[in-house]
Amino acid sequence: MGNVFRFHTDVDTDQIIASQYLLFATIDEMKAHAFESLDREFASKVKPGDFVVAAENFGCGSSREQAPAVLKALGVKAVIAKSFARIFYRNAINIGLPVIVCRDLYEQVKDGDEMELSLTEGIVRTKGQEFVCTKLPAYMQGILDQGGLIASLNREGE
C-alpha cells in the first residue's frame, strides 16, 4: 500500500525536475526539488512505495533522464497515468521505474488516497475498487525487476 500524489494533464519534465537543478552533481541532490513548482512539499511528503497518478501526456517536454530518476530515487513505486510522453516512458523503463497506463484511475483518486498495484496482474486497487491497467510485457517486467535496462544487460553478460 502506498499513498497517491495526483497531478494534472501535460506535466512536463521541467515541472518534475526544473532545469536549474540539473547542475547538481547527483540525483540525490536533485530529488529534494522534485515537483517543486507544483507541490513545494512533495519531496518531503512522498514515502517509498507511494504512487504518482496523472492525467494525460505525463512527462512531456525534454528528454531528460533525471525526471524519472528523481522519482525513483524518492521511492515512488510507479507512475500511473492515462498516457505518457514517449521519451519519458522509455527513460523510466530504462532506469527501472514502472510506468503504467490506466485510463480510468485518475478521476477516481485524490491526493492521499491509499492504493496498491500488482504489476504482474496489471491491477490497481483503491477504495474497494479494482482498475485494470495496461499490463507490461514479460520482457519489460524483467527489465524493471532487474533495476532497469543497463542492469538487465549487465546481468545477461554474467
Quickly list its features:
single chain; 158 residues; alpha/beta; 29% helix; 19% strand; globular
Explained architecture:
With 158 residues, the chain is α/β, with parallel strands linked by helices. It has helices at residues 13-16, 27-30, 42-45, 66-73, 86-95, 138-145, 149-156; strands at residues 2-7, 51-54, 78-81, 99-101, 114-118, 123-126, 129-132. Strands 4-3-2-1-5-6-7 form a seven-stranded mixed beta sheet. The protein is globular. The chain starts with a strand and ends with a helix. The mean pLDDT is 93.
Write the layout of secondary structure elements.
Layout: E1 2-7, H1 13-16, H2 27-30, H3 42-45, E2 51-54, H4 66-73, E3 78-81, H5 86-95, E4 99-101, E5 114-118, E6 123-126, E7 129-132, H6 138-145, H7 149-156
Parallel strand pairs: 1-2, 2-3, 3-4
Antiparallel strand pairs: 1-5, 5-6, 6-7
Total count of strands? 7
* Structural class label: alpha/beta
Task: Name the shape in a single word.
Answer: globular
Q: How are strands sequenced across the largest beta sheet?
A: 4-3-2-1-5-6-7
Mean pLDDT: 93
